Amino acid sequence: MIALFFRDLKLSIRAGGGAMIGVLFFMTVVAVIPFGVGPDLNLLSRIGPAILWIGALLASLLGLDRLFQAERDDGSLDLMLMQETPLLFTVFVKCAAHWAATGLPLVIASPLLGLFMNMSEIAIGATMLTLLIGTPAITFIGAVGAAVAVSLPRGGLLVSILVLPLAIPVLIFGVSAVYAAIEDPAPFLPPLMILAAITLFFAVIGPVAAAAALRHASD
Amino acid sequence: MSENSLAIRKFSDLANPTRFLALADRLLPWLAGLTAVFFVVGLWLSFATEGDYQQGETVRIMYVHVPAAWLSMMCYSVMALAALGTLVWRHPLADVSSRAAAPIGACFTFLALVTGSLWGKPMWGTWWVWDARLTSVFVLFLMYLGLMALNRAIDDPARSSKVSAVLVLVGFVNIPIIKFSVEWWNTLHQPASVMRLDGPTIDPEFLWPLIVMAVAFTLLFFTLHIAAMRNEILRRRVTALRRLAARSAGRGARTK
């Protein structure tokens, strides 16, 4: 399992893996926003957390179709299906590796983009923390979509359509936690707790459903 | 095929599509007639009753809006049950049922959203607010459309059935969120006033037309659903026959 984790991680970091493309996309999306709404620093600092979250959501959707596609193309997916270890754990480990390769760089890149957005230190820290807690949930939800669309020739766009509605709660509570950290009266902890609960919930549901979909898609 | 062999005694007998088609043919006229009767009574009641002292005539939108919203959730529950039937019991008709229900559910959800927005304009002063109930119903609408897109993308029904069943079950998370959204987040949309443990808090003047309309909408759903299932079975038969014809034509050409 650990070997699988590092194998996936290496595959996605090396050339052609597309992990860095996600971060680049994230930066581009965030950099495009000031052109759209104008370079008003006050406005940017107010909408900054939301922009960072939406950018991270879109960027993590971008690489999802590659989660099982490459394995299916070269046949190693069939080997994983026949393994003695439950498919559930295999999917879970693959999700974890995918998050470490695509989600974690987004979290690391977010403070820099927060500076571009003229956000305060507290807001940057809160955004980073919520992204760290929230992006695994997007990966786990996305695993279901990726497994469902794995046998389709052009599954990428369909995965995004299927996954986005389910990822809305993550976005809502992530952004509301950041705003609660900036503005004083609202408590910071409840939305953060709910965000963590959503992540844990989908960490259970996601691999189960993805494993079921993979089994049925293969036969 | 004698009449006796088409008799349905157990639920599993429905697995035979021919039996189901025979039952559907016998049931559909009755269901359609009943639906029409309930709609006539319901519409007459909803226009005969008095308007609300505060909302005036616009309260009549409720008689369409509330049943459509109920049905949008019930349709998804039917789909989830059918998905369970596909995955657990491998019931052949369950997949047909869930596939046929998706467009109908999308229509009811769309109707609920449109009437809600028409009602919201005079009452709340805006077409749309990002309230918890409205947002979660909108998400439900998007999920219906996504499922329809997935069903279309995979042309082999044997393969698409299991995969979309998994997705339907995952999306079922949204249904309790819709139901309890008005209680968890106390926002603009009013909480439930009919289905409550301590009895309905709504005036009988409005309750009766609402109940009749709800029954009419439910019957309409079942009529449409059975008709759509029949069409889906026939469509699959046509596809199978076409493939068979193409194959035999190819074989005939080779032997010549």
UniProtKB/TrEMBL annotation, chain A:
Major localisation: membrane
Membrane topology: Multi-pass membrane protein
Matches recorded under InterPro entries: Cyt_c_biogenesis_CcmB (IPR003544), Cyt_c_CcmB_bac (IPR026031)
Keywords: Cell inner membrane, Cell membrane, Cytochrome c-type biogenesis, Membrane, Transmembrane, Transmembrane helix, Transport
Origin superkingdom: Bacteria
TM helices/strands, residue ranges: 12-37, 43-64, 85-110, 122-150, 157-182, 188-214
Keyword Transmembrane: yes
Keyword Transmembrane among UniProt keywords: yes
Pfam (any one): CcmB
Compartments in which it is found: Cell inner membrane
Function: Required for the export of heme to the periplasm for the biogenesis of c-type cytochromes.
NCBIfam families: ccmB
Entry's family note: Belongs to the CcmB/CycW/HelB family.
Entry protein name: Heme exporter protein B
Organism, scientific name: Ensifer adhaerens
Upper taxonomic lineage: Bacteria, Pseudomonadati, Pseudomonadota, Alphaproteobacteria, Hyphomicrobiales
